[in-house]
Design brief:
Length: 311
């Protein structure tokens, strides 16, 4: 993409992506603890579609956008990043009552204030991983990509029982051509035949981090962080993240990070956790057979990120 084609968004937006279940919500929310950042949750994920904030629904999970097919998506995504709240769509999305109208008007006014305060928009979205290049280049974003151990990823999908319809990938000819050509036969096999959650997790992880490996080679100005490193030393690694974003890691934010990474294991939630103890939960969630199977299935990609001792 040529420099003249970039849409200069000031202040510069932030993209936090990676595989799903890679800690992107945790990392995004900790960055958004900064009073200079406004957090938007997964605009590429129709499950979280919010009329008013999001301006388009996507026809595929892991939608791939590039310069070739951007026409339909450019304007609505720019409106989201530019904090253009569609009040009329938000009102019409629910039963029209005075209470609902007042609620939507309140959000509209809040968005106007956020916009006038010139906060940096943070898009947190693992479902945007294959469109990360386009988002970064088109909107001049600073991009953070999170990497997570494949066994942790597989165990998380197993616990959630999150299956995946691989037709979402197979039907995207540009995505196959540009990024997943080497996986096309496997994608077709998984699209046409029922596979276990572990098998699905292995293929998804391999494809996502095959593309991430390409990103690492091509985009030296992006920040790539391992979930395990952040979990082991949260303050040290969030300092790296905040320095990269040119944000101040204030004492207040450090306190918030501690609260969300050093919780008692009995009180943890999706965001409030004991990050160190969370690193190896996959060792109890997966059987030895599942761990060995996952290791074998992903080793062509995983060896670039995780040594033998990390298994």
């Amino acid at each position: 993409m040529k420099e003249k084609d970039k849409i200069k968004m000031k202040p510069q937006p932030i993209l936090v992506t990676g595989s799903h279940r890679s800690g992107s919500t945790w990392v995004g929310q900790m960055i958004a603890a900064s009073q200079n950042v406004h957090y938007i949750h997964e605009p590429f994920n129709n499950y979280y579609f919010s009329p008013g904030i999001n301006h388009i629904k996507f026809d595929k999970v892991f939608k791939y956008i590039s310069g070739e097919n951007e026409k339909k998506y450019l304007s609505p995504i720019k409106k989201t990043i530019d904090l253009k709240y569609d009040l009329l769509s938000a009102i019409n999305s629910e039963k029209v009552t005075l209470s609902n109208i007042l609620k939507k008007v309140k959000i509209f006014l809040e968005y106007n204030k956020i916009h006038s305060d010139k906060k940096r928009v943070l898009i947190k979205d693992p479902i945007a991983i294959f469109s990360a290049e386009w988002l970064t280049q088109r909107f001049d974003m600073q991009t953070i990509v999170l990497i997570r151990h494949p066994a942790a990823f597989a165990s998380s999908l197993k616990i959630k029982n999150w299956g995946f319809n691989f037709n979402n990938l197979l039907d995207q000819k540009l995505l196959i051509r540009d990024h997943l050509f080497d996986f096309r036969n496997e994608i077709e096999e998984f699209a046409n035949n029922q596979k276990s959650i572990i098998d699905q997790a292995c293929l998804l992880w391999r494809m996502i981090y095959y593309v991430v490996t390409k990103y690492q080679y091509l985009h030296k100005n992006w920040l790539f962080m391992k979930h395990e490193d952040i979990s082991l030393e949260p303050l040290t690694n969030f300092q790296i993240i905040f320095d990269y974003l040119n944000l101040d890691l204030t004492p207040r934010i450090k306190t918030i990070i501690r609260q969300h990474s050093q919780a008692d294991t009995n009180t943890k939630t999706e965001l409030i956790r004991n990050s160190k103890s969370n690193i190896h939960t996959w060792k109890t969630r997966l059987t030895d057979e599942e761990i060995n199977y996952t290791k074998l299935k992903v080793q062509d990609i995983s060896q670039k990120y995780y040594s033998e001792e990390k298994w």
